[in-house]
From TrEMBL, chains A, B, C, D:
EC class: transferase
Gene Ontology biological process: aromatic amino acid family biosynthetic process
Domain DAHP synthase ferredoxin-like stretches: 1-67
Superkingdom of source: Bacteria
DAHP synthetase I/KDSA domain: residues covered: 93-336
Name under which the protein is recorded: Phospho-2-dehydro-3-deoxyheptonate aldolase
């Protein structure tokens, strides 16, 4: 940490700060600039809050952090080794990570009925997907919109899992539902709107299933990694980060702005695997193929793609869902790029 | 609702849409433009989702909503009459609303210990505040930061209430804690990070205590009013909206961008009372007075102001807290403007 | 400046940087932290670019600036004394600044014809305005929209000036027009879209008329003050800053988000006077009164308010213009608050 | 255009609007909804301003545009045929467009001296680039930063062109410099900060050289295409759009947020070719390769990549420049993906 004092700060104030800081087992080092004094704090400041220091004196102009605010999520924490999150599915273990083939997660926004979810599961499996996504509990902007079938949808997901062997990814919205969701899900999703629902983060961190953590609409990279840190600090090391578009000033042609630059940025900062969801990221099915291909080419570890057997009749998010036919075509295109960049799984795995 | 068809849409597709729409008890009216067809949907479309319609055909260019997506929160729902939310406090009922004096809510970010919360309560009461704010459960970006004293802090708030007669406003973060919080709080706060925690919204809507709903960091006005709609639709009519700053591209000198224009905008759209929190809105105590005065002059119904007996030692949010002395001075300045605009409560009330 | 090295930077790299920096007449001071080295640069770094330093080595993690990137615009540059910008108008000198009454600038978006501009000038003068605003050259999003009457409109502004004695504020869009504009204008406006048109900034800085510098739609406070610095560094000290709303994620009910917190922030950072334009800031005439009143209460030095004799027939920006009657009423309300906060000019001045 | 009236609008007001609108040669069609009236305007409204209509009555709730605000830039204007912009360079004509190989533009941020620019030109040509970029006039946030060598740098660009046969892309910042720039440049760049410098747009539109139009930092897609429309409407059809990152709430790890979703969006909306500048888009050389590869995979027509022989000594934007060695490697990777997607030029062309 570095404390920058305001110009003309009284010497007594500086001494005061230095005294306080020493009590925190930190070694202060003072640099006398031409107009301002700067105090470097040497020691373990990783989990120290900036605001705690700022409050020490009204003469403090700014407190700057050297190093990152997150710790367990950082690449340094694992000495530069990238994590792999291995998920056990009926079809066998599927690893997410930098050194593994890209993992494709596909399925409808919400689970509507048995026939549709099983049909979709079979179609996406045949096309090469490794996981089925589908919402039982749906966060909807309007209280009058379809809120998901809840518990009964979880049963349908279990049936689709049994029928296809695909792993299941589904969202939990309430700590009260966690146990039920964890019974069915192979990966538990925390949605964008709950990214800073810290109670929920602690509870998914205190159970065993891997967690897919979507980025909040206005979450900085640091906010997002700090949310992951909540889960890691609660004892669960299996966290996958999912970019799904951020909110910017232009929402006319795309619902969100898909921030693909997180791919190299996260690779620099964290050991955790990352997924790109171009369906929510753009909100329009026409834009999903090119953005999914771009994500794969840029190095994403996993792709989430919404697929619905009949988007025109979907109970939610139809406009961003691909038909199974379009998904087949996209998987074909992805496989070409995926093989080129060495991130495509062998047919044997896809068909396992 | 208005459906805008793409140029050169096939006639059969248009007929198809018209057929579907009639099944929904809506009357479609077609306008043939020079290049595009537009279909107006006459009937009750208030709670209909745009995406449901958009999915009807790939030839639909856009679906535009006429009227607002929210209903119970709208000013029209109460035929232009503004709500008043009356909160019973030991000192007597305190009404929030357009036709009432401005209500001042003050107190520390978090409840730290008995002495500090009771001292603060006494000081802010003496200065004319009507409510004490103070966090028992604290949403913090970092898992390593102070998370609030939880249940024991609720007891201290109850003690401060008993000691001063002030109403209590405190935050609930988890549906599991709602009952405990509701026992102590006169107004239950839903924080910015939980504004779209729909499980929580439904549950605070299903109980009786008034709810203070903070605006999310990236919430549009519509998102915010839809969140209020969740509470209203669940049966609780006592909702107060609180602006606390939004996230924009400039976060160097203020933590958030306080959007004071919500004051006239909300007055146009909704009957609900509104509060402005300049402490979170700016993040710096030096900027709180001018922004609180501006909010009052612009017509806010209530002000939230963080006050801490010793900001330099605060466990959270010290940099944005006023000292009791600075709060006294600000209340003095507010009273001058408040009297000028006819929104200041008589001393008799402040001292009740 | 502070250089933060990446963890495990080679000692030779650090020595290298220290060597380079010494050649720039700076004194490097090294702090050895537990995982990272930090190098403080002592000396005159105010006008040094961060990127120049960052390029010294790929082992540099970050370069942090201590102090501000602007110099002449800073409050320190004038040792804490606030500037006053005094503009000579036919009615006498009008000072803008912290220690002067609020200055009101009113008039239409664009100059449409002689009758309308002279009528408007008379009406706003009668209501107490000190300046007439009106566009001769108009920046319009669409090439098909009315672009202003150009040179002939400048003549009409001169006529309105002669008829009322009001000072004239009008925009320059092209360096080629500067001379013509400067002949008529008492204050030359640089619009939001040209805030970083550096050629234009240098040229308005190299002439004598005071300059009104509007904040760009996505300009940070630092960007804005650096744009002012261009004018100041070119020799013109008479700069007034004008906030007119920034672009954020919500543009449904207001065209821009008026950032009133710039009032206390700028007061902290710069000696320059500041103006608030609630007409562009909100884009809706209904919201202009409350936001103008808020700006005055918060301490703005000047207000810009669009007034049009017949907004329904305006050639541009009608929806945000007040009628003369509404402007009269607003001036009445402003005078009440203005007197309360001691920032309202005596009638004698308004009628001078 | 669609006019949405407020609930309970008086019939006389509606008749009034209908009367006005007929005078504009438009056919109004009225739809009577359950609470609101909607009026469709049939006729040529493409170049009509929304605000002109909104001003017709205070009872108008909203005016919605059917179809796009731009015309010449729209894909419909060319009946679904994509433009190609063919630039004549000493090495032969280079076409930009959907049906052509990707065009690579490389070079330093600014032209520093003869040796560096010629060396860079030779290196990027050898690696397969088609154009040399390099700034003679540089828009810099600070007046104290290097502003470019101006006219003398133009001569050096001409020398590099002569030495290598590469086409030249360089920026014009001031209408006064246009002629000089056009003498040397094969493509004239309008920078992000001047995207809405309408005087400059009109003047580059009135000359013959192709124009590269960078997206403004806070420009919506519509704003950007309207800026292109200025150039097209002034008579110059050779416009290339360049995405270079937008400003969002997170600027810690990337300077801007590169919006790659413009690739499919622009393809839907406009016939104009598009370029992606990942160097400015991310601001960090480490992130340029993956984002350039993503852009190519997603279908961009052209890539701009900053290359500097010695980034550590660059006079501007060093941190985002690749060394020639890294550029060689990136071109190698691009060629693999480019061949896979069928957008890579034959060696014969690159060496022409």
């Amino acid at each position: 940490m570095i404390i920058v004092m305001k110009p003309d700060s009284p010497e007594s104030e500086i001494e005061n700060i230095i005294g306080e800081v020493k009590q925190w087992q930190l070694t202060p080092e003072k640099i006398q600039g031409t107009t301002q004094v700067v105090i470097g704090l040497v020691g373990d400041t990783a989990t120290m809050e900036i605001s705690r220091i700022q409050e020490l004196s009204p003469w403090i102009q700014e407190v700057l952090r050297v190093g990152k605010p997150f710790k367990r999520a950082s690449l340094e924490f694992r000495h530069g080794h990238y994590s792999e999150v291995v998920v056990n599915t009926p079809n066998g273990p599927v690893p997410f990570g930098k050194n593994h083939p890209v993992v494709v997660v596909a399925g409808p926004c919400s689970v509507e009925n048995e026939e549709m979810i099983i049909e979709t599961a079979k179609r996406v499996k045949a096309a090469g997907a490794h996981f089925l996504r589908g919402g039982a509990y749906k966060p909807r902007t309007s209280p009058y919109a379809f809120q998901g079938h809840g518990e009964s949808a979880l049963e349908l997901l279990a049936a689709a899992r049994a029928a296809t062997g695909l792993g299941i990814i589904t969202e939990v919205m309430d700590t009260a539902d966690l146990e039920k969701v964890a019974e069915v899900a192979d990966v538990i999703q925390v949605g964008a709107r709950n990214m800073q629902n810290f109670s929920l983060l602690k509870k998914v961190g205190a159970q065993d299933k891997p967690v897919l953590l979507k980025r909040g609409m206005a979450a900085t990279i640091d906010d997002w990694l700090m949310a992951a840190e909540y889960i890691l600090a609660s004892g669960n090391n299996n966290v996958i980060l999912c970019e799904r578009g951020i909110r910017t000033f232009d929402q006319k042609y795309t619902r969100n702005t898909l921030d693909l630059s997180v791919i190299p940025v996260l690779r620099d900062l964290t050991h955790l695997p990352m997924m790109i969801d171009a369906s929510h990221g753009t909100g329009k099915s026409d834009y999903v193929p090119s953005m999914s291909i771009a994500a794969l080419a840029a190095g994403a570890d996993s792709l989430m793609i919404e697929v619905h057997p009949n988007p025109a009749k979907a109970l939610s998010d139809g406009p961003q869902s691909l038909t199974p036919e379009k998904f087949d075509r996209l998987m074909q295109e992805l496989s070409v790029i995926g093989k080129t960049v060495g991130r495509w799984s062998q047919p044997a795995v896809a068909l396992a």
